[in-house]
Amino acid sequence: MAHQHHQHHHAHHHHQAPAAATKFDINTSYAMNSGHKIPALGYGVYQTPAADCEAVVLHAFKTGYRHVDSARAYRNEQPCADAIRASGLKREEIFFTSKVPPRAMGYEETKKAIESSFFQTGLDYIDLYLIHAPYGGKEARCGSWRALAEAQKQGRICSIGVSNYGVHHLDELEDYIKTSGVGGTIDVGQWEIHPWLPRNDIVEWAKGRNVVVEAYCPIVRGERAEEPVLKSLSKKHGKTWAQVLLRWSLQKGYVPLPKSVTPTRIEQNADIYDFELDQEDMESLDMPNSYAPCSWDPTTSHE
Ligand SMILES: NC(=O)c1ccc[n+]([C@@H]2O[C@H](COP(=O)([O-])OP(=O)(O)OC[C@H]3O[C@@H](n4cnc5c(N)ncnc54)[C@H](OP(=O)(O)O)[C@@H]3O)[C@@H](O)[C@H]2O)c1
């Protein structure tokens, strides 16, 4: 927001708040091609047991997260929605994502998956729905997209996108949207992204089209905690290796989706707005030729 610089000082002058340490804060969001906004920090719930899920999502909301990344495959959409209702926050203050499971690819199956998400969550609308992975062949991928585009047109799903798509899948989808007339905007892409898997080809494709890039496994599931580069940046900034990795992701312009069921870690992973990696720090994490997934990697699939 623009603020005025007064020429003279008043007796009870209110000082400006100290300049924010960085250009990000926990409420930073990005505008998507759909016209909607997405919070720049997400909270992942893959492998979060359904029985614990409502409580940990509520803790995330209390900590300040406003974005939950679920999926049909995670079997915890319902407790996520229960947490949204129990939070006391307005529905529109929260951003909720689900995904088409690989076994529900194709137009009819994806329509059913979407219906099941609405039935299980009881939500009136879903903020973001992604195709979880590019499996099933071209016809199935395009059919799933058509189902998402229809739901977006109806306003039931605000924004749509893909996960784990390689550049060849993205090109196929872009061509389908241009030639089929089914519509739909590619609002978001979600991929495993961290310094050991930077995916610069995919990121370049996405950035050129204003597709918001979500980064899953942003802290590499803890597998890189002992890397010397993280030890040194951790010491330099007085932050943990996980916070350094999340900060890297934010500063790259991505939407990191850290997962934790541990309250102190949920808090730690959101406490990333009081320091900044400088250019040299960022370059020390630049490994353009590294390709080391810690999760599955459907981007290379050619079915
Ligand atoms: N689209 C896809 O195909 C796909 C695939 C994978 C993940 N995702 C999404 O991305 C989210 C994150 O990915 P992820 O869960 O696989 O990996 P991650 O967030 O990189 O790592 C999660 C692991 O790190 C631990 N952890 C969390 N914070 C920590 C901290 N501050 N210090 C030390 N350890 C910490 C967690 O343990 P505790 O929970 O025990 O604290 C958990 O074992 C998922 O939940 C899901 O929403 C999407």
From TrEMBL:
Molecular function terms in GO for this entry?
oxidoreductase activity
> Which Pfam family, an example, fits this chain?
Aldo_ket_red
Q: Where is the active site?
A: 74
Q: Provide the site residues for: Lowers pKa of active site Tyr.
A: 99
Superkingdom classification of source: Eukaryota
Q: What does this protein do?
A: Catalyzes the initial reaction in the xylose utilization pathway by reducing D-xylose into xylitol. Xylose is a major component of hemicelluloses such as xylan. Most fungi utilize D-xylose via three enzymatic reactions, xylose reductase (XR), xylitol dehydrogenase (XDH), and xylulokinase, to form xylulose 5-phosphate, which enters pentose phosphate pathway.
Family, according to the entry, reads as follows:
Belongs to the aldo/keto reductase family.
This chain's protein is named D-xylose reductase [NAD(P)H]
Q: Which organism is it from?
A: Knufia peltigerae
